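BUG: 3D viewer hangs when loading the predicted structure for this chain

Environment: internal workstation, default settings.
Expected: structure renders.
Actual: progress bar stalls at 90%.

Input used:
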Amino acid sequence: MASELNLIGAGLAAIGTGAAAIGVGIIFGNFVSGALRNPSAAAGQFTNAIIGAALAEGLGIFAFLIAILLYLK
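Structure tokens produced before the viewer hung:
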């Protein structure tokens, strides 16, 4: 019984990796939209987009790590 619950928990934790991918897509989609509206401000906002994407990917990697730890337990 505990093994099945570990697998369910690992699957639920793996959802965070998909959520991180969606978050990165939203970040860069909004960046491109803003850059097309105001090209002169795009260079200043690119660093913010990269930092936001890195934070979102970091959370995705953390969720993936938790999923692997739950699966191996």
